[in-house]
Amino acid sequence: MTDTAAPASLPDGQALAALIAGKLCHDFISPAGAISSGLDLLKDPSAEDMREDAMGLIEASARKMVALVAFARVAFGAATSAERFSGPELGALVAGLTEGGRASLDWCVGDVSYSKAQSRALVNLAWLTMAALPSGGMATVSTRTDGADLVIEGRAEGPRARLKGEAVAGLAGRPLEEGLPGQWIQPYWLWLTAHDAGGSLKVQAEEGRVALIARMPN
Predict the structure, then answer these.
(1) Residue 147: is it exposed, middle or buried by C-beta count within 10 angstroms (0-12/13-18/19+)?
(2) What angle do CA 188, 189, 192 make, to 5 degrees?
(3) CA 57, CA 89: separation in Å to the nearest integer?
(4) What is the set of domains in the chain, with CATH numbers?
(5) Which of 105, 117, 146, 147 has the CA that lies 20 to 30 A from 200?
(6) pLDDT at 79
(7) Neighbouring C-beta atoms of residue 30, cutoff 10 Å
(8) What does the pLDDT look like over 134-182, one tens digit per residue?
(9) Terminus-to-terminus CA distance in the chain, angstroms?
(10) Regions of the chain with pLDDT less than 70
(11) What is the pTM (predicted TM-score) of this model?
């Protein structure tokens, strides 16, 4: 087990904002581009036989974009009037983003309310648990109360369950030394969310299994 202790230095607020903005742009460009391609097909008189495919592409991509925006508002932003979120609400956000992927999600989160910081940690941890299963498997996300703390746990079990080097660095609160910033920022954001709330983040990784465990004041 790795206890993710605080690093010697952290990126400043402006750099952090730029990295998050870059990740969001990367996430949004795929469905946005697909919508644009679908609209181009609808306008092409020589592609009449592809209108049904074009409408299917537009509809699926629009749903993906809506799911990404809804997720990002809780995972990265503060553009919501809600101060607390229920377990089913957060589960719907994660399911909307991960639907159709190779991994299956078992959402074992109680129907109680969570603070903004807890909700941010929960959805990011769930997404990263799913991302640890590139070849499929089962991602189980659960919460429990331990004394005065909320414990959020994600367990990824599958044939190739793993964390990329960028994710390992981010989850440890370390600056990115090499690799892709876009794959580092969300793990780092989870670490920062947990630690800024007075909590902690631990990582367990072995062959075929990855566990992320966040502990936050309740």
Answers:
(1) exposed
(2) 85
(3) 27
(4) 2-217 (3.30.565.10)
(5) 105
(6) 53
(7) 13
(8) 999 999 999 999 999 999 999 999 999 999 999 999 999 999 888 899 9
(9) 23
(10) 1-10, 78-81
(11) 0.90
